[in-house]
Amino acid sequence: MTIIVNLDKMKVTEFKYRFTGPLPKANGTEFRISKLKPPFGRVLQDAVIFQPDGPGFKIDGHVVRWANWEVHISFGVRAGLVISLASIFDMDMNKYRRVLYKGHLSEIIVPYMDPSEDWYYKSYLDCGEFGCGQSAVSLEPYTDCPAGAAFIDGVFAGQYGTPTKIPNVMCVFEKYAGDIMWRHTEATIPGLKITEVRPGVSLVARMVTTVGNYDYIVDYEFKPSGSIKIRVGLTGVPEVNPVEYIHISENKEEDIHGTIVADNTIGVNHDHFVTFRLDLDIDGTNNSFVRTKLVTKRTPKSVKTPRKSYWTTRPKTAKTEADARVKLGIIAEELVVVNPNRKTKHGNEVGYRLLPGSTSGPLLAQDDYPQIRAAFTNYNVWITRYNMSEVWASGLYADRSRGDDTLAVWSQRNRKIENKDIVMWYTVGFHHVPCQEDFPTMPTLSGGFELRPTNFFERNPVLKTKPINFTTARNCTTEKE
Amino acid sequence: MTIIVNLDKMKVTEFKYRFTGPLPKANGTEFRISKLKPPFGRVLQDAVIFQPDGPGFKIDGHVVRWANWEVHISFGVRAGLVISLASIFDMDMNKYRRVLYKGHLSEIIVPYMDPSEDWYYKSYLDCGEFGCGQSAVSLEPYTDCPAGAAFIDGVFAGQYGTPTKIPNVMCVFEKYAGDIMWRHTEATIPGLKITEVRPGVSLVARMVTTVGNYDYIVDYEFKPSGSIKIRVGLTGVPEVNPVEYIHISENKEEDIHGTIVADNTIGVNHDHFVTFRLDLDIDGTNNSFVRTKLVTKRTPKSVKTPRKSYWTTRPKTAKTEADARVKLGIIAEELVVVNPNRKTKHGNEVGYRLLPGSTSGPLLAQDDYPQIRAAFTNYNVWITRYNMSEVWASGLYADRSRGDDTLAVWSQRNRKIENKDIVMWYTVGFHHVPCQEDFPTMPTLSGGFELRPTNFFERNPVLKTKPINFTTARNCTTEKE
């Protein structure tokens, strides 16, 4: 059923039945634990996590200090969680050094792949049209964020201009995932076996934004080694379309635009493109973007070895915005934001490298309206010159936008970006062909990327990190939460 | 200095000085905590992790049971940790269903990118030449594996045929990383706000193999949702080359084949290609490999909407091995191993999807000797017909091999693979341009992939999972470990 309302006239102007068929049954769609009947799955063990001296981070207003990191955390109606002034302590220099001036979600676009009248317009700009901050939810202790997490409220101007608070909308926690920060066993010295291992712990700042049916878990993870990992987890409920049948063999359509996930229910094909804006300030404001191609070379005849080839590095600094549009996965290259004004003792430019994740890009035609509005997804990575009005990849006014104010348009100005205040834009892309496991709620599907110090420090910055003292608790009294 | 020994004659046949220069100083290369002087880095908090009822897994001989998983874990001299008979309990069917008959490391090749006489031959086949099991190390509690881990010894026939044991060479632990298994906040029902969150816990089986300078952390992670994540972490000490200078501006060579990482020390460019052999048995022995292209379509004129395009799925079952050679990152496609003999209630073929990680492939020339031996890296993914003699991607006898018995050669037989017992080969690739942070020990760099159920279950298999009861411990007495 399609109802079109003319909001200027406040009148229903069209009313159409497309399809009359059986309503998908509620049976199997319940996901509340209190309403579900046994048997339940093989239940996970209860757990206690306990830090004798409390958590390792300190929150002072909006500033979080943990290990060698100092990070400002705030909240906005459109972006949700905002990281600012992220700096890492350098033991050699005995001072904090800036990495990220500001980083946050800029847009999420979710185009569905059914071109019919009921679905064609579903290409939501989640942050621009709904507000990824406004749609963020209060986080639940122990489940949304683990034991030991600290929760922070979000306050913003609501839809009617009044102050609006979402309690516990962000959390900060230490992640003890059993990772190894670094290790080495040296077994080649006769009579001596050295094993040194440092366990990996990191600090995570998290928000969850639920834009209608989907829940996005957005994590900013800081590692003592200097890495920042940004990750988005997709969960929630997939969007579905009713059909008359229960078994795919009964289908008479040429294309069902998805997968039958339950009785009378098609999970519709779609994409998620999650775009982050990262105003990096690598050890200062003025930075450059270096694309270092790895190029195969034939071994010169002068080198007398049986080796016929090797690869070498061909660094090229992007002069303008056009030089810095990257489609991932096509060529082997290292992508590094450097500060050309700062060099290490050995003469390397200090920098942070981008370690990309998925290489998914848009598949819609370039002349299609949703893709004109989503032109910011045409490349996985863009670098722009800093401009205070360029914050939202889909444009300042995304609702009913026509694509004339997107990141892709700004990049057309082709500004100089060498040794300037520059901004990196990274899109985490997912093509989603639904499957039955996604129904009625979808196990989290994750993607993301890493920013990793590359000649930023003179040496491994966590070389002189003491192993954590782990203790075993005995004779505890425990209280259920 | 190069010394060539003729092992048949047991004689030194060549002795060459290439280069006389300053020996890199030991200063800055120490990584033992006991030898390092203050100040140390901002130290991470001590931690206690405590499960009142002990860990959630049970080990019975070589079989580990945890949540809905049952997995056999063993050890081999060449592969190290071997996963067998991994099966997941299906609540709807009230039985365990097979996913992975056998999965393990098959080979790691590490070609270095300096073609000179001293380096050209460095293209190590770590598992075939050294033994990734033989080189595996005893794991240290609390640092290599977190609190609550169980350790398992590895026993194999040693170099002289005698039984050899590496104590605690594998560990199994529950990973409480603060992940969310699934969640949804339903805010669209007037007067009712529903939030349901299930925290994510997984089971990890780990080994670390130290082949000379590099330490590889190999993790097999099982999630209650049915996903298997396989991940390799690279750490240890990079291989270095001495040079006369301290600052890059002093360099007179055209190509230094790496990065100056410390005084008189070049970290040499190289790759790591880590190949896993996965004998999948998705709900039975006979499986097929389906490549589903996502294809952009123009909206037909008959569809009266402003939408001009969408993507749809074009599944194609690989008939032979040639159809199943995949270079990742070039086209949008879903890669699914299905059991064509088993369908869901709705008629979907039960399957497991591959969610790839990095798309790095080899850059050496195809006629170069190391690449002929490493031809198994020419594609990121291969599917072969099961053959009991095809286990080691580099060939059964890798040492001094000439590339006539590799995965690439077997695949040339182009056997039929539709509805057969098939084996998936996946290579996790890294190009490594060293940076100063990698010296003297390298913070872990991770890569991997996920195998995820796709129409294997009738619905979200963890829908009916109770939230974990987290408890807060009080009044504990603690003992330092």
UniProtKB/TrEMBL annotation, chains A, B:
<dbReference type="GO" id="GO:0009733">
    <property type="term" value="P:response to auxin"/>
</dbReference>
<dbReference type="InterPro" id="IPR000269">
    <property type="entry name" value="Cu_amine_oxidase"/>
</dbReference>
<keyword id="KW-1015">Disulfide bond</keyword>
<feature type="active site" description="Proton acceptor">
    <location>
        <position position="126"/>
    </location>
</feature>
<feature type="active site" description="Schiff-base intermediate with substrate; via topaquinone">
    <location>
        <position position="214"/>
    </location>
</feature>
<keyword id="KW-0560">Oxidoreductase</keyword>
<dbReference type="GO" id="GO:0009751">
    <property type="term" value="P:response to salicylic acid"/>
</dbReference>
<dbReference type="GO" id="GO:0009414">
    <property type="term" value="P:response to water deprivation"/>
</dbReference>
<dbReference type="Pfam" id="PF01179">
    <property type="entry name" value="Cu_amine_oxid"/>
</dbReference>
<dbReference type="GO" id="GO:0048038">
    <property type="term" value="F:quinone binding"/>
</dbReference>
<dbReference type="GO" id="GO:1904585">
    <property type="term" value="P:response to putrescine"/>
</dbReference>
<dbReference type="GO" id="GO:0009753">
    <property type="term" value="P:response to jasmonic acid"/>
</dbReference>
<feature type="domain" description="Copper amine oxidase catalytic">
    <location>
        <begin position="49"/>
        <end position="463"/>
    </location>
</feature>
<keyword id="KW-0479">Metal-binding</keyword>
<dbReference type="InterPro" id="IPR036460">
    <property type="entry name" value="Cu_amine_oxidase_C_sf"/>
</dbReference>
<keyword id="KW-0801">TPQ</keyword>
<dbReference type="InterPro" id="IPR015798">
    <property type="entry name" value="Cu_amine_oxidase_C"/>
</dbReference>
<dbReference type="GO" id="GO:0005507">
    <property type="term" value="F:copper ion binding"/>
</dbReference>
<protein>
    <recommendedName>
        <fullName>Amine oxidase</fullName>
        <ecNumber>1.4.3.-</ecNumber>
    </recommendedName>
</protein>
<keyword id="KW-0186">Copper</keyword>
<dbReference type="GO" id="GO:0009611">
    <property type="term" value="P:response to wounding"/>
</dbReference>
<dbReference type="InterPro" id="IPR049947">
    <property type="entry name" value="Cu_Am_Ox_Cu-bd"/>
</dbReference>
<comment type="similarity">
    <text>Belongs to the copper/topaquinone oxidase family.</text>
</comment>
<feature type="modified residue" description="2',4',5'-topaquinone">
    <location>
        <position position="214"/>
    </location>
</feature>
<dbReference type="GO" id="GO:0009737">
    <property type="term" value="P:response to abscisic acid"/>
</dbReference>
<dbReference type="GO" id="GO:0009308">
    <property type="term" value="P:amine metabolic process"/>
</dbReference>
<dbReference type="GO" id="GO:0008131">
    <property type="term" value="F:primary methylamine oxidase activity"/>
</dbReference>
